[in-house]
Amino acid sequence: MKRAAIYARYSTDLQNERSVEDQVALCRAYAEREKLQIVATFDDRARSGGSMLGRDGLIQMLAQANSGAFDVIVVEALDRLSRDMADLATIHKQLKFKGIELRAVHDGRADTVLIGLRGLVGQLFREDGAKKVRRGMQGVVREGRHAGGKPYGYRTSTMRGRLEIDPVQAAVVRRILTEYADGRPPREIAGDLNREGIAPPRGRTWNASTINGSGQRGNGIVRNEIYIGRIVWGKVRMDTNPETGRRISRPADGSEVMTADAPELRLVDDALWQRVQAINEAKAALKSHQKRRPPHLLSGLLRCGCCGSGMSVHDRDKTGKTRVRCSAVRESGVCTNRRIIYLPAIERAVVDGMREQLRDPRYIEIYVRRYNSERQRLASTAVRNRASLEARLAERQREFDRVMNAYVKGFITEAEAEQQIPELRRERDRIAAELAAAGEDPKVLTLHPGAINDYLRQVDELAATLADHAHEGMDKLTQMFRSLVHSVTVYPNGPREGFEVEVKGRLAELVGGHAFPTGRFSGVNVVAEEGFEPPTQGL
């Protein structure tokens, strides 16, 4: 008698647990009729057939198939093995190579034609089922019922699919939206709620992200339109990653979004809501480095010239002037630079020094010349190494395929696969990017005098503002200035001999590149360095 293994599966925890036992009983009756000896039984409970990943029963069965533990695999129907055409074909190909028959109770022996037909039907059935579920959810929304999870501020009603206002949480929502509209940052709002012990929607603490959400996904308390009595469904869709088998959420196409009025769920009036959305729109227009307002002109940009650590506020003198020092001295005491320097003095030195460099195009011309020369050299090297890059890319792709195949065959665990696959993918994509860039012509940077003059004018305004200790208009000037600067390194001189600062930054808007020529400024004296500084990609 031929040795046989039985495999059974059902899809979700909403189905009957007895489904597996029923499938096994049906397969045993088939095996008895066909004179097959059952030697093993495998199953996956509440597992989708859309992917092979995460199905321990299937992986164990394929692993034992490699060792020749049985001659036949019996399933109730081929869609129990997989509802994906590619996966079903792969399983059949592997079993056929090992000389193992695949039999379905309702279809008999599986051949290439049957695998193709059942694979296509199974995948279409799965995709059609997803569409029907989505259509059903859209019908729920059209009826004015809530189709998603329970949002903060509401509780489930006794009527199926209906929500009702939770008075306690609704008061918190109104408070959050009011404070946000008045200009309070989400971090401060979250901090107050945590200190007062108010329970968050989920987890243990409130976070800025809980309040702010994502503009692309339309979530977060300040973006949830249910608070003005409008149910919105379909802002995200769930897709299965074919490499990991995990479902991930992605922003959906706007045409898939459905809305329905639910005035009984309104918590705030339109006037407050419009103020909140105006703030969201203003933030969306800002660049990433502009979204956080720095407390000082050079906040987060200062570096110690002795150890390279950041410099932070130390204290303020009797007149209220801010003083800074190396943070490594305060935190660990490992730096020898114990100088305490007035921050306004550093700001004036940096602004005056940058103004002098921008007035003399020779400094920028030196940078552009060296930058273009380096880009030409790198491009030539990349072209020469193209064959090497192609070989490395092919090798990484083979390694990636080997790991995937080892996981499918059960040679490595899911945890091992999840550890190796992302790193291999990143390395493969990095080499592919190098290969794509190898054939590109080097980008030549050019000067834009008009832009330089515009920045000169604004730097002059900033210098005048600092000199007058004024604050009106500082936000705009500060954002402009920080868009040029990458870092400011402070070098202390001897006792009572002042200091020097080295500025590294960006000339993206002036020359189309990513870096600013290095210069040292002490007061208004400039000592420019002509060494090439590689492009810097961000703060």
TrEMBL record:
It comes from the Bacteria. Keywords: Coiled coil. SMART domains: Resolvase (SM00857). Residues 151-286 form the Recombinase domain. Residues 386-472 form a coiled coil. SUPFAM superfamilies: Resolvase-like (SSF53041). Pfam families: Recombinase (PF07508), Resolvase (PF00239), Zn_ribbon_recom (PF13408). Residues 3-152 form the Resolvase/invertase-type recombinase catalytic domain. This is Recombinase family protein.
